[in-house]
Amino acid sequence: MKFCNTSRQSLRRSSNFELLRVVAMLMIVLHHYCVNSGLIELIEPKSLTGNMLFIQFMSIGGKVGVNIFFIISGYFMINSKFKWRKVGRLFFQILSVNLLVFLFLMALGYRYGFRQYLTIVPLIFSVPTSFIASYVVIYILTPVINKALNAFEKKDFQYLLLVLLVFFSVMPTLLKQETWHYVGWGFTMYVLGAYIHKFDLKAKELPFGWLSLGMIFLTWCEILLFDYMSAKHGLRYDFWTFAIADANKLNIFFLSLSIFMFFAKLQLPYIKPINAIGGSVAFGVLLWHANNSVLRQWLWFDFLKNTEYLNHDYLWLHCLVSVILIYGVCTLLEIVRQKVLDKPLFEGKQRRMKNFTPKAT
């Protein structure tokens, strides 16, 4: 992590990782455009069209973005001091966004079932299937995780990573073993980020930009291969999703790692607009647009009507405008929420505590 040298800017973070958070969340929104909208169920390899290929190719980034968020957490939190105040702020962010989305959907006339009501409270029905819930679990466990990891020598770190990657990535990718677990995989990516930071692996001179492009091309080729096998040899029609279905697939893992390393080595100064929409704001974009199945029904089916554009000449334009619009609106909503709700509650309380002086006895 690089800081500016002047005293005025000493606390200003360089913008490479904030830009990475923005890029990762854009990939997640694009992924949701493809997989949460009903488009993915309409893919038919035996009558494949250019638009179907476009949806397949654009859908690979969501799990990459998930991995990147976990890696970033391990990279920065391995040496940070755990504060329950930050946990409280994270919970408040999730709860307040969930409640505001709930009220918005109710105002539109959507009605929740009992299970959907309970999604207002995180973690009840969503571990280990939810990224958000699993992220919170890892976040809460960081004091214990960091204490153990900071006691490791390099060879201990490598041994732990090897075992985790073989169990959670190599076995399900090459042997089709059902070892997927969101918390377990999130922990694996957290350990990876901590390892990169602790042993300064970002100094490695490798062409991570080209490696990232190569992994994207390789994943697209894998999708095409599965499409061909489905059309010509009767492979299950949706088997192509095997290449991108989970964040632990080897190609997705290596793509995530190479993109992270590219941005870690990127020389960027402090850029205020990027930093303003990174961090918790970028995470808030996920909360605002991917809250629950009712929200997904309204956003992708009833409002944007994605499936109606599958055979349209301007599917690509609808996709581009939709992703940018969703990201922009959710960013504005999160900035307003933080200013109206977060700052008065958390920063106001902190100022009151600092200004409090006990009476003399």
Secondary-structure element pattern, one letter each? HHHHHHHHHHHHHH
Which structural class matches the secondary elements?
Answer: mainly alpha
Strand-residue proportion: under 5%
Whole-number average pLDDT? 86
Helix content: 55-70%
Instruction: Measure the end-to-end span.
Output: 47 Å
Q: What's the alpha carbon Rg, rounded to whole Å?
A: 22 Å
Uncertain ranges: 1-11, 356-361
Total strand segments: 0
By DSSP (H or I, 4+ residues per run), the number of helices equals 14
What's the overall geometry?
globular
Protein architecture, described:
- By secondary structure, the chain is mostly helical.
- The protein is built from 14 helices and no strands.
- It has helices at 16-35, 50-58, 61-77, 84-107, 114-118, 131-149, 154-174, 182-198, 208-233, 250-265, 272-277, 279-289, 293-303, 315-355.
- 37% of the residues are buried.
- The model is unreliable at 1-11 and 356-361 (pLDDT under 50).
